[in-house]
Amino acid sequence: MSEILGTLFAKIVALLSLAAVAAVLFMVFGSNKIQNTIVDVTQLQTNAQAHYAGQSTFTTLTNAVAIAGKLAPDSMISGTALVNPFTGTVTINVNAANAAQFDITETKLPADACSKVIVGLPAFVSLKVNTVLQKLPLDAGAAITACNTASNTVVATFSH
């Protein structure tokens, strides 16, 4: 009887250990997606600003231009589309209200990732989360409140 209980206990410990390792890996890779999103958007933003540095407007800036001109990092490019690590789409284009600015739109950001991404993005001049314009400078607590759905859309506006 004690042999059976010992074997059973050993198997339970092994399963718990496996579950713990899986949980740690999930947290590490989940955090990696957030960092990759921040790095990708920052690189896209920086490359677009550098490419359009001699121009007064961003009127010709599109996903197609970002892909063809290698403004978008390779990790964002999926065929003719830009994507984020959360299987959402990424769009870069001229700002509709001000041609001297451009927008980067990220979709399908989970709530926990959304707040970390928007706090980690540099130098935006305007920010909308789920169509709601955010007050700048953005407060970290306000970021959590703004990213209140399971799948969030973020529009960050940048200029020269």
Short description:
This protein has 160 residues and is of the alpha+beta class.
Task: Return the average pLDDT rounded to an integer.
Answer: 87
- Helix residue percentage: 40-55%
The figure for the number of domains is: 1
Distance separating the two termini: 75 Å
Strand content: 15-25%
- Chain oligomer state: single chain
The level 1 CATH classification is Alpha Beta
What is the CATH superfamily?
A: TcpA-like pilin
Unreliable residue stretches = 13-30
Largest sheet data = 7 strands, antiparallel
> Care to count the β-strands?
7
Rg computed from alpha carbons, rounded to a whole number of angstroms: 21 Å
Widest sheet: strand ordering:
1-2-3-4-7-5-6
**CATH T-level fold name:** TcpA-like pilin
Write the H/E string, N to C: HHEEEEHEEHE
Number of helices: 4
> Which CATH architecture?
2-Layer Sandwich
Give the overall shape: globular
Structural class: alpha+beta
Give a structural overview.
- This protein has 160 residues and is of the alpha+beta class.
- The protein has a single domain (2-159), classed as TcpA-like pilin (2-Layer Sandwich).
- The chain is 46% helix and 21% strand.
- The protein has a 7-stranded antiparallel sheet.
- A hairpin with a 2-residue loop joins strand 1 and strand 2 (81-83).
- Helix 3 packs antiparallel against helix 4.
- The longest helix has 50 residues, at 2-51.
- The N and C termini lie far apart (75 Å).
- Residues 13-30 have low confidence and may be disordered.
